[in-house]
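[step 3/7] fold_predict: job queued, chain A
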Amino acid sequence: MQCKNNLLLVFLTAGLLIYSVQAVAQDIPKPMREGKTLEEMTSIMKTEGKRGLLYIEAYNSGGCNPDLRKGVFENEKMIARIESTFVIFWVDFEKDWKSETGFFKRYNVRGIPTVVLINKEGKMINKLVGFDGSAEEYMKRLEKAASESHISLKDDYEDNPEDVEASLNYADILYKSFEVEKALEIYEEIVDKIIEESTALKVYTYMSECYRLSEDRKKAVEILEKGLAKGIFQDEKYVIYCQLGNLISEYDDSLGPVEKEDYVEALKYYQMIPKNAKDFKTYNKSLDNKKRIDFSLRTAKINIPIAYLKTGEEGIGSLMFEKLLAQTYDKKNYDELIFLFRKCIFHEAYLNEALLWAEKANEQTEGKNDRILTDYFRLLQLCGHYDKAIELQKYRLEKTKSEQEKDYEMQRLAELYFQSGQNEKGNEIFQKLYDDKKNNIDELVYLAIGCNQFDVNLRRALNWTERAIDLSQNDSYAKESHWLRSRPGLVYNQCAELLFKTGKVKEAIDTIKKAIEIAYFEDDRRYYKKNLEKFKAALKNK
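[step 4/7] structure written:
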C-alpha cells in the first residue's frame, strides 16, 4: 500500500531552502583575482598575454557550488593547468547580478556556478554551466570549450546565414552554452535542410532538449515524434522511445503536472524498448554522448514501474520495482539506491517499499552515509513514522556542531512535531528560535516558511515577515541577508502568502506585485505571478 502524504513538495522545498544557506562565505581561492570591471580584466589579460576565465559562483549557495570550488578551483594541479592558458577571475554572483553592466547580464548567465571563457577584448569564447562531480571530466570539458570559438562561429554564421554547416556549428555551441532560445531559432531555420542522417539525429535530439529547457513539454515530444515519423532515427529508435517515455512521464514543476493518460502514453513507448542493452550501442557511438544516453536509460528503469503504478497496474510495477531495488542493494551501489529513493520521493511512489530498503541501507552503512541517512529520514517523515523520525532528528541534532546548522535542525524538529500533531512542542522551538534571531531577516523568513507550510502560527509568522520587510529597509540589516542579495522577492512572497491565508487578500495582492517587481530569476517571477492570479481569483469570488 502506498503512502499518501501531501507534504512531499513542502518538505522538499524546505530542504532546499535549508541547504542553500548552510555553506559559509569563503575567501577567494588563490591564485584567483576578483573580477571587478571588464576594463580592468582586459588590461590584465593583455599584459599577461592570456585569455580570461570568469568563475561565477554564489558562495552562500549549496548545490554544486562547493563541489566545483573544492574539486577544481582549490585544487593546485587543476589550477596549474588552467593558469597555463587563462587568467582566472572570481565573480560573486550575489554582487554582480543586480548591475546593468555586470557579467551576469553581459554573458547571459543562466545558472550557478558558471565558468565563462573570454578573449582579451572581453568577448565570450564559451561557457560551462554546473559541475558533474568529476574534476578530471570537468577539465576535459573546459579544455574542449577553450578550443571552440564562440566568436568565430558566430561571425561565420552571420557572414553566411544560408550556410547550413555554419548555422549548425553556431547553434550547437549556443545549445552547449545554455543559450537555448537562440539555438532553437537557428535549428528551426535549418532542420528541414539537413540531409546527413547522423547530423539530423543530433539536431532533432538537441531541439527536443531545447524545448524541454524552454519549458515546452509538448514541443519537446513533438520534435522527437516527428523524427521517428521521418525515419531519421532507425536503429536509434529504441533510445528515442526511452527519451519520449521520460519526457512524457517525468514530473517537473516548470513542465506542468503528469496525468494518468500521460503515463499511459509513456508506457506505449517504454513497452517498445528491448530488454537487451546491446541494441543501444549504435546510438551511443553515433551521438558520442554516452553519459546522456545512460542517464535516459537509468531514468527509464525507475519511471517504468512508476508508470505502471500510476495507470493502475500496481502489481506489475511493484514486482519490477522490488526487483530493481533488490539488485541495486545487493550490489551495494549506494549512488544508484539514492537515485531510486529520490525518484520515489519526487513522484510519491512506492514510498513504503523505498523506506524498507533505505532502512536496510542505513544499517548496512552504519548511519555513516549522509545521503542515505537523509533519504531514510525523508521517507520516515513522508510515510508518517513520526516517532522514529523525531528520534533520528534528535540524534542528528546531537551530532551537529555548527550553531548555524543547529538552528536549521531545530526547525526541522519543530516541523516534525507539527506533522505529528504535537503543536505545543513545535511552537516552543519556533518561539525560542525567533527570540534568538528576531533581527535576522533570513532567519525570520525561514521561520515563517515553516509556519506557512504546516498552517500553524500564521498570524505570528505574518508578523515575522512584516518585521523582515521592515528590517530590509535598514542597510545595516539588509547587507547581512542572503535572500535580499540573491532572491529579494522571496521575503515579499512569503509575506503575501501569509496575508492571503489570514484573509487580507487586497494586501496580499499589493505585496506579491512588489515581489514580482524586484525578482531577478524568471522561475521566481513565474511562481509569484501564479500566486497573483490565485489571489485575484479569490478576491473576485468573494
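[step 5/7] annotate
The first strand starts at residue 33 and ends at 34.
The chain has a mean pLDDT of 82.
exit 0
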